[in-house]
Amino acid sequence: MNRHEKKALNTKRKILGALALMIEKKPFTDITVSELCRKAEVNRTTFYAHFHSTADALDLLEEELINDFLKTFQAMDDPRLTQPNLMQKQTLIPYLEYVRSHQRGYRLYNSLSIFRHDLHRDLLLEKVFIPALARFGQTDRNRIEYMADYYLGGINAIIGRWVDRDCADDIDAIYDVLLSCVMGTSTYIETVRENNAFPVRVPAQATESE
Q1: Alpha-carbon torsion 147, 153, 158, 160, what sign?
Q2: Cβ distance 108 to 65 under 8 Å?
Q3: Measured between alpha carbons, how far is 104 from 68 in angstroms, rounded to an integer?
Q4: 8 Å CB contact between 12 and 60
Q5: Rg (CA), the chain
Q6: In b/e form, how buried is each residue of 16-39, taking b as 16+ CB within 10 angstroms?
Q7: 162 to each of 55, 63, 75, 138, 167, how far by Cα in Å?
Q8: Which of 118, 148, 175, 206 has a Cα-to-Cα distance from 200 of 20 to 30 A?
Q9: What are the DSSP calls for 11-50, one per residue?
Q10: What residues contact 157, with CB distance under 8 A and at least 6 apart?
Q11: Mean pLDDT along residues 142-152
């Protein structure tokens, strides 16, 4: 990368960083090019040298957020995965660690997801759920879409609450909540036994009913 390319990249980052800060404070549809330029400390000519509009800048911001976010699902290629579910520890813990380390980015991603819900859902469907479940012979797209909506709705609600509390609760505790909500009692107990860890005490009556 030459000097000119580095300068252009840094300028784009300044603009995207400013846009991210502004979206936290006001709806994207209320953000003007002039406001964005003032926040990024660039002139309009410089802005238009890199973007056609604020929507163009938003597209790149979303793309960067999504690409970074999707890296957390690399664990799905782990050969230790033996079941077609997304709740195994080696799948979910890296995701929770990412969220805890990128709380601001997660909040921003969620705010953009509300604005473009279908786009974000489809990206996760194509890049996460379909490839992961195809490894186990699940190719019925209609069924996978239902499963994706179930996972995304429930997991996002729990993790959103966790982030609202500044991720104060331990990751293992959040994993345990997710696991116990998504799975039935017997499956939950078997799964935590396979992982050789009980984050919380399992009631005696639950273990006796296996």
Answers
A1: positive
A2: yes
A3: 13
A4: yes
A5: 21
A6: bebbbebbeeeebeebeeeebbeb
A7: 30, 25, 22, 31, 5
A8: 148
A9: HHHHHHHHHHHHHHHS-GGG--HHHHHHHHT--HHHHHHH
A10: none
A11: 85
**Average pLDDT in the chain:** 78
Q: How many residues make up the chain in this entry?
A: 210
Q: How do the domains of the chain map onto residue ranges?
A: 3-51, 63-208
CATH fold for the domain made of 3-51: Arc Repressor Mutant, subunit A (1.10.10)
* Overall average pLDDT of the 126-145 stretch: 82
pLDDT tens, residue by residue, 89-119 = 776 787 888 889 888 888 887 776 655 556 6
Q: Answer whether residue 26 shows pLDDT above 70.
A: yes
Q: Which two tokens stand for residue 170?
A: 């331990």
How many CB atoms sit inside 10 A of residue 2's CB? 7
What six digits make up the tokens of 62? 């979303």
Highest mean pLDDT among 73-87, 92-106, 189-203: 92-106
Which helix (H) or strand (E) segment is 157 a member of?
helix 141-164
